[in-house]
Amino acid sequence: MAAFRGITRVFFTRSNPSATGNKISLLQNQNHPAQLISYRGIASKLFIGGLSFYTTEEHLSEAFSQFGQVIEATIISDRVTDRSKGFGFVTFASEDEAQKAITEMNGKVLNGRAIFVDTAKPQTRPSGMPIARGPPDAMDLGL
Questions:
Q1: Which residues form the signal peptide (predicted)?
Q2: How many domains, the chain?
Q3: pTM of the predicted structure, to 2 decimals
């Protein structure tokens, strides 16, 4: 619990506690409005699957901006080839705009491919055995 308190001190500070007692303001994430808005719970992030490999973040943002204010549009790419993995995320300013985009865009064609649109789920780390990354080093074996 003490570690959690330490982490929250990095992100939050109480401003003028005598006025309200619980007024909290953000210290960091001021450079990235998508993080600020999604932290507050105002924004809604959508998962977009089935994208063409030629779809750009600008094109994705443009296609979804007709349903509301797009805060951020990202396409996930492979680290090695730098090629699109065929899915991405769009963050809207409000839940209503996101729901409208889900109902209107799910199953529609974008750049020649039918896309799948749904609410983004939180990323979970796999539990269990870690993935092997190659043979062990000589130092690890005690040689």
A1: none
A2: 1
A3: 0.60
